[in-house]
Specification:
There is one protein chain. The chain is mainly alpha-helical. 49% of the residues lie in helices and 12% in strands. The protein has 3 helices and 3 strands; from the N terminus they run H-E-H-E-E-H. A 3-stranded antiparallel sheet has the order 1-3-2. The longest helix is centred in the last third of the chain and has 32 residues.
């Protein structure tokens, strides 16, 4: 088991990926601040309690696909379904884009990403120190 497979590091990686994808959605909001009829969007925050439960629970049995014709593929692009950016759900804002609010979200997002990245790197540093590598 690699160090990056520890549940704490997986949660931090997921959080950093979420912040990266959110930054893209927020930048689209800023870019379209003057577009008529454009509704601002934001990413639904991941629930880390669910990922912790998944990490600690027994994994379900998966069916093996021996031939492509044996199983139907699900359609992810159905009309009316929530859109996704990467693996995170995009939800529409109730209001049109307010540039000041979007810039505050961008700044908060950057700070949260930096905090997660710092925790990740310091955690790796502690593990390296514990095993005798500097």
């Amino acid at each position: 088991m690699g160090i990056s497979n520890l549940s704490v590091f997986q949660a931090l990686k997921t959080k950093m990926q979420w912040h990266q994808e959110r930054q893209g959605v927020l930048s689209q909001n800023v870019a379209n601040a003057d577009t008529p009829g454009y509704m601002g969007r934001d990413l639904k925050a991941p629930v880390f309690a669910d990922s912790l439960d998944k990490a600690t629970s027994v994994k379900p049995v998966q069916l093996a696909v021996t031939e492509p014709g044996h199983m139907r593929a699900s359609s992810n692009g159905a009309f009316g379904m929530d859109r996704k950016a990467g693996s995170f759900e995009v939800t529409p804002d109730d209001n049109t884009v307010v540039l000041e609010e979007q810039m505050m979200k961008v700044t908060a997002n950057q700070m949260d990403y930096q905090a997660a990245a710092t925790l990740y790197s310091r955690g790796l540093g502690l593990l390296k120190t514990a095993i005798g590598r500097s």
